[in-house]
Structures are given as C-alpha cells and as structure tokens.
Fold these 4 entries.
Entry 1:
Amino acid sequence: MPIGPRPEDVAKIRRTISVYKVSSYITGTFLLLLVLMMVFRYGFGVDIELLGPYGFLALTPKDLIAGINLSTLILIAHGWFYVLYLGADFVLWRLVRWSFTRFLFIALGGVIPFLSFYFERRVPRDALAVIAPLETQEKVAA
C-alpha cells in the first residue's frame, strides 16, 4: 500500500482539518480553565461555584457549595472536548496516513497546556502541504 493520502480523500481531509482546528481551540481553552481550576482546588482548597449564595461566581470550599460546581463542569467539558479532539486527530491521521508516533504526539495537545494552540496552526499546515500535490494533479487531469 502506498504511503500518503489517496486523491479521493482530499475533500474529507479538508473537512477534517476544519473540525480539528475548532476542536483544538476549544480543548486548549478548557485545558487552561482546567489548570486554573486545579490550582484553586489543590492549591487553595476551593472550587469554583456558580450562582451560589456568595454571588454569581465564588471560590468556595467543596463541602459548602450550594450552587453549581463549575469546577466539575470544567472537568467534564474538557474530557468530552478532548474526545472530539482525539477523534479529529485520529481521522486526520488515518486519511493523511501519518505515522502512529505523530498521532500520539498530536494527541498530547489536549493534555499539555498551550500545545493545542501550537498544533492548531502546525497540523493543518502540514496536512495541506501533503495534499497540495494531489490537488495539483487533479487540476492538471481536469
């Protein structure tokens, strides 16, 4: 089997790049919120409370939270958006036919702060560079 993307997958790769870019921004943002939440929880012993008795947003000890525990919502949201990020990473990896090591390296973007923002710029650029010759071949053949 030849290495590299198939010409018929170019449109799928372009769509996947769009999903990947959006998911990397969202995952990166929630990861930064998660880091902030962890500092509050394990550094200061408080969680972020939404709409509780202490105001719209408050830092409250976990046992005293009467409103919505925003810290838990951040944890859950980051987890699900990371699943979306991994899915987009996997589909892009499969269609472009990169090495498995590259898939794992890109997957780190959802667990290392700020790395997803770097990959949001780098990965699509690399994928577009790989499919550029295929698009040129399609234009010449048409």
Note: The first strand starts at residue 47 and ends at 52.
Entry 2:
Amino acid sequence: MKAVILAAGEGKRCRPLTLTRSKVMLPVANKPILEHIINALVKNDIKEIILVVGYEKERIMDYFEDGINFGVKIKYVEQKAQIGTAHAILQARDQIGKDEDKFIVVNGDTIIGPDAIADLINGEEGDATTLLTCKKDDVSGYGVIVAKGKKVIEIIEKPKTLISHLINTGIYLFKNDIFDMIEKTSISTTGEYAITDTIQMMIDEGRPVTTTVTNAGWIDAVYSWNLLEANTIILGDFETDVSKAKIEDCVSIKGSVSIGKNTTIRAGSYIVGPVVIGDNCDIGPNVVILPSTSIGNNVSIASFSYIKNSILMQDVRVSTHSNISSSVIGSNVITGPNFITEEGEKLHIILENELNEAEKLGTVIGDDTDIGGNVLVRAGKMVSSNCRISSGKTIAEDVPTNALIN
C-alpha cells in the first residue's frame, strides 16, 4: 500500500518558526514532525510514499531526498497553490496510478504513532472510505464526526456547540475513486477545496464512509507552543544512550537521557531526563538541564545556565547564567549572558487575529536572532526571525521580523 503525505502548507499559526521552514519540518525530540510520520508508516510496512510539497519544499527534499536513508521510497509532487487538502491529494493521482486499489492519506503536520496507522488499516470495511478518529473532551477547533456505529453520518468543521466527542485526525484510507469525487468538489467559502467536503458529498450520495476510533498516539501541534507538549510525549519513549558522548567527571545524569556523538558534557553539569541532546554540542560546565528538553545539533550552553521543558533547535548559542523555561528557540539564535525567559500559565495570545490560550509558555524565538546580555522576555511574548535585541532590554511586546531593538 502507498501513502500520500500532505506537506505543502506553511503552518501560519506556528509563526515565527514557520517563516523559515514549513510546519512539517519543525523538530520534536530532535526529528522533524514529518520524520515521525514516516517512521510510523514504515513500522506498518508502508514504504512507498508520495510527498505533496509546496511551501519551502527545498528544505523537505534536501532532508529526505529519495527516502532511502529512512527505509522508504519517496516521490515528490508539488501543489503550486495551497488551495486545500482535496486539491493537494489530487496532485498525487498520477503517482498512485489506476491499478492501486487503495491508499492512505496523512496530514504531514500531525504526529502519529504506528498503532494509529495499524488501527486505520485494521478498521477497513469492504469498499468504504475509512476515517481515523479519536475522542477528545475539548473538540473546539477540530472537525467533528457524527457517526451511527461505524457509519459516518456527517462531518462538521469546528462546531460552536458540542455535537460529538469524535474528532477527525486527518488520516484516511481511500479507494481510487476518490480522485473522481475530488474533481466534483466545489470550492468552499474559505476559497479552498477541502477533502472533508468531498467526503461529505460521498456520504450525501450514499457511498459507504466509515470511521475507526484510535486510542493510539495522535498529537496535533496547532500552535508553536503545542510543540512542547508533543516533545514531552515523544521523549517519554526514549532510552538512555550516552555511549557516543564525552562525559567529564562530576556530571550527574538521571532518567532517560540520549546524547549524540562528539558532544561534551562538562564537569558539574546536572541532567534529568527525559532529555535528548544532539551531535557536536558543548554543554557546561555547571549547566542544569531538566525534563522534557530537546537540544539540537551544534548547540553550546555556557556555564551556570538552566534549561527546562524547552526545545533548542540547531546551532543555538546560550551564554552564561541564562534561564530558559517552557520555550522554543529557533535555529542559529545567539543569546548573551543572563538571558531569562519568564514562564507563565494560561496565557492569552493573539495570533493571526485570533485569541488563543497557551497552558504554559515562556517564549518562542524565530531563527537567526541575536539577543544581547541581561535580556528578559516576558511570558508569552514572541520574538520573530532575524531580530537584533540590545543588552539590558525587557521584551514586554511581540517583536516583529527583522526588528532592531536598541
């Protein structure tokens, strides 16, 4: 069986991180979201993958290439205009071919476990289109499935009242006739061709559409701060491996900690897992790293710094006496000494003209930003890409792209 992964969108609600990469390439536990999806497919013996790319496609193609290093065979098709999921799936028609009886479609910006894919495959019934669903108490912001037994009656996008606890995961098992149905789909009020509209049309025409419910791992990182929750969950499956690292004397390591090759952990450092640290890093001396932290490749963290529940991407430089909590730091960010991210809970954040709530957050900093010494970022305030912030500043408002704060 082949799988189509939809990876063409930007992910605007994850800005500023997606100003320089697509959402599918955001790292969780030091691997892009898309890599976690591919690994889940491989564990179900699905190794022919069609990637529908668009926004920042070169970054995806350079990383995955032909897929051989990931145990799969990847073919790429481009969605030149991001005008909906149905339109994206249609781009894969030629690669699927007429002889392919069925195939899987996965949204490339959600993290799934192999058991979720297995549940979808095992839930197939005859000629029916199959939707993978899961149950959530809070269904706001999701597409909701109304079903009678396994039969899908209706798909309702983001209902304002509680109709069902079954939400659409964006993972489907389709038959080849889905392409003909997509061509009959009308454009929605949002200007897109949505696959949920196609499926609803199939339901209205009396075609069989069923749902299978999964209790397996499925994480939808809608906003940049959701990456922290996803990171915590994925790190829970890691095992300790420090065999390739250089660990100096008087280092304390507790819990599940994975450290990459050519990484040095200097004397007096204290690490409590789950934590993953990449290759070619220089940590310490006397650095504290606490649970649910991912540190990418080529990162240096200078002495007497404290990192907790955070994601530091590649090529980050953290100077001495810094305190980073519940934050996501983009690639190639440099901070001066005494850099502090204030941590807050149940923060109200305006993003894309919508008011959203973050359960717990320090800050999110975009790529290529240079921050001076003695800088404090207030809880929930975001710093965009390619910014320059002088020493001694308190950041109490969001900082736009290319900003210079003297």
Note: Residues 327 and 363 are 5 Å apart (CA to CA).
Entry 3:
Amino acid sequence: MHFSFRPLLRASAVLILAVVVACSSTSAATRVPEPAQDLPLAKTAGQETLVIAGGCFWGIQTVFKHVKGVTSSTSGYAGGPAEAAHYEIVSSGSTGHAESVRIVYDPSKISLGQLLKVFFSVAHYPTELNRQGPDYGTQYRSVIFYSNDDQKRIASAYIDQLNKAKAFSSTIVTQLTPLKGFYPAEGYHQDYAELHPDQPYIAINDLPKLDHLREMFPELYVKK
C-alpha cells in the first residue's frame, strides 16, 4: 500500500495538514561517528558515482548539492525496470523502484565514508522501514545501490558500526542492493526543493536538513 502527502501539499497549504506533517517530519538529525572503514582521498581529481535512496528524492538531492566535492546530484529511480521509471507509475509502490539520487563526486575532495556519514545523519532516517515521515511505500525505502565491491564493503561496515554503537534507537533498515540501472526523474523534479522553498512540504521536511548539514558539518557544507 502507498500513500503520500506530497500531492496534497502541492495543491494546498492547509494549516491542519501542515501540522500533521510537521509532527512526523523527517528533518531531525542524529550525530554519528566517523566511519571506521573508508577509502583514502584520491591523489588526483576524478569522478565517482554513488546512488542512494532515503525517502522523497527532493530532500536527498538538495542536501548533497551542498556537500563539498559533489559535482552533481540528480533525482531519479533505481531498483526497477526502465519501462516503469516514471513518477506516476513509481508512486504506485509496485515497480521495485525507489526514489533515488545519483551523486557524482570528486574522490580527491570527499571520501565515500564522508558521503555515507551525511546520508545517515542528516539526509534521512535509516531506521524507518519503507517510509520517511509523511511518505510511505517501498518507493521511499532506505537503500544504498552499490556499484562496486568497495562501496558494498564500506557501506556494510558502516551500518554494522552504527548498529553496534547504538547510534539510533532502532536497528538500521537500509538495504544494500547492487545497482542495475539509474533513470533520471522528470525535469520538474530536478532541484525541486530549491525552486519551491516556500511550499509547506519543502519548508517542513527538506530545508531543515540543509540547516542540519550546515550546523553539524560546516567543513562539508558548501553554499550554492
């Protein structure tokens, strides 16, 4: 079953609905330890890609646009077939897709472990199963779509580390899944949070994540 408050919030700024969403907001942050396993910074500039999912892709995309070393972040779909990579179909929750973000970054400026630290601490709640705040369904699940052995190893080790450290009150439910394809979302989804900062859903659920990024990781935050 799937349900999302986003279409309602796009259509109306009803105060009662905004209060309901605020009560289940995804804007809280958790301080997490440094990854015990990580790759060293590359000696020369380059380009690597990481695909992650953690609820609505609007918020994830805008967070990583402001992370040092990230050259681009793109909203899209991963986990399902190419023919189903359309918002109206993905929203049914039956395609296997998750609303995802493809992060392209320079490994000489930021490491994989540091990106994962941002993902787990300020970008989403990794303990919520098939939901994030007001949105629920498998398309909002927490996933790291790894594309090589290093990504799988480091992500798996960090999840184990966070669970053993009891960084969260519940067990992390983030899935580790091999990346089979990433499909960019429709144009109107790109940079949505920054283009619509006054929309209630964005103001309540997404913009506070940027505040947490700036406050908790000033060394990683980049103003755009």
Note: The two ends are 37 Å apart (CA to CA).
Entry 4:
Amino acid sequence: MEPDLSVSRDIAASPEAVFAAISDITRMGEWSPETYKAEWKEGTTEPALGAVFTGHNRNGDKEWSIDAEIVEYVPNERFFFDCQVRGFVFSKWGYAIAPNGDGCTVTEYSQDLRPPESLERSAQISGVADRHSHNRAGMERTLERIANALEG
C-alpha cells in the first residue's frame, strides 16, 4: 500500500488492546466519525485474512454502505482492508501498531484509488468534495477516540 495519508498517535495501551479494538469491526462506529456501524458478511464473526465486512457510513444527511475485505492481518501489528464497489477497489485503509515505552504508536493509513471520472459522483453520494482533508480530520478523530477509550 502506498498511502496518500497517514496519521499517527501514541496511545498508552498495549499493542494487544489496541489491535483488539481496531480489528473488532463491530466497534468501528465507536471510533470513526464517518462509519457509524460495521458488520461481518458471509457468516464471518471475527477478523481474519480474507474476511469481508460492510461499513455503513454517514455524513450529514448522506448515507452509504461499502464492502471491505481484510487484506493484511498480523495480530497486534497490522490490520489493513480494501474498500470496494462491484469488485473495484477504490480505497485502501489500514492500521499499523508499534510498541513504544508507554504503550504503542498507532498509524492509520488511507489510499484513495478513485479514478478522476468518479470523483463528482462520489462527492454527490457522500457530500464530501475534499476527501483528502475530510479523511485526515476523520483519522485524527478516530485515533483520538481509540486513545480516549483505551487509556481511561
């Protein structure tokens, strides 16, 4: 993955605790300001390489759902997934966790793969014209929420 964006934050919690929180996609609505709910698909009940889930997103009065497949799963270190529509991967997201002296450093990554001809339609669906700035703010908020939940 060659991210367009990355945001890091030190979190005073173990890599195991952070990884458990991040990889439990049913908790994604607690962390993300855009994804308010996520659920497993195809009988899956836990994260694993190749597992698929649906993220339900909201921005103001706009709502949409996206399927995602876990493409990298290294317990307590890396959790990455591809977001897709009709088999086309339009974005990649992931988290890397590295231990540090007081817990761990968590980095969230995002890569936008939308072709230029889809940007206008994407903005109509989501209500987001500047996806880069929107994602950066959302990533900062996501890591803040994870830290607040796990450091308390």
Note: The chain has one domain: 5-151.
